[in-house]
UniProtKB/TrEMBL annotation:
Lineage of the species this protein comes from: Eukaryota, Viridiplantae, Streptophyta, Embryophyta, Tracheophyta
This protein's name: Basic blue protein
Origin superkingdom: Eukaryota
One CC-aspect GO term: plasma membrane
Domain (Phytocyanin) ranges: 29-124
Keyword line: Copper, Disulfide bond, Metal-binding, Signal
Record GO terms (molecular function): electron transfer activity; metal ion binding
InterPro entries: BlueCu_1_BS, Cupredoxin, Phytocyanin-like, Phytocyanin_dom, Plantacyanin
Pfam families registered for this protein in UniProt: Cu_bind_like
Signal sequence, renumbered to the chain: 1-28
Length: 124
C-alpha cells in the first residue's frame, strides 16, 4: 500500500472510532426518578424492575428548598447520613449521570430518608 493509502485508511479508522464512541453516548437512557410523582417520599422501590447502565442519567424533580439529593456511599444510604465527601444537589431539577456499580442517593432533610426518600441503583 502506498503511503498516501495508509494515511487515508487511518483517517477512515479515526472517523469510524469517533462514530462508535458517539453511538455509545446516544444509547444512554434518561430516567425521571419517581416518574410523574418526582423525587419524594416512598421512592425507595422505584428502581425495581429497571435495568440501569453506567452513563444513564437520572432526573430528580422536586421543589427547591423542600428536598435535596445527595450522592452517598452505602453507609450513608444505610444510615441516612451525608458524609463530608458526598455530592449534594439542590436545584429541583438535577440531572445525575450514573457510574458503573452501586449508586446511592438520599434526601438529607430531617426524616425524609428514613421515610423512604432514598434509592439504590446498580448500574451495569
Amino acid at each position: 500500500m502506498a503511503p498516501q493509502g495508509r494515511g487515508s485508511a487511518i483517517v477512515v479508522l479515526v472517523l469510524l472510532l469517533g462514530m462508535l464512541l458517539h453511538c455509545g453516548n446516544v444509547l444512554a437512557a434518561t430516567y425521571t426518578v419517581g416518574d410523574a410523582g418526582g423525587w419524594t417520599f416512598n421512592v425507595v422501590g422505584w428502581p425495581n424492575g429497571k435495568t440501569f447502565r453506567a452513563g444513564d442519567v437520572l432526573v430528580f424533580n422536586y421543589g427547591p428548598g423542600e428536598h435535596d439529593v445527595n450522592f452517598v456511599n452505602q453507609q450513608g444510604y444505610d444510615t441516612c447520613t451525608v458524609s463530608s465527601g458526598a455530592k449534594t444537589y439542590e436545584t429541583g431539577s438535577d440531572r445525575i449521570k450514573l457510574v458503573k456499580g452501586k449508586n446511592y442517593f438520599i434526601c438529607s432533610f430531617p426524616g425524609h430518608c428514613t421515610n423512604g426518600m432514598k434509592i439504590a441503583i446498580n448500574a451495569l
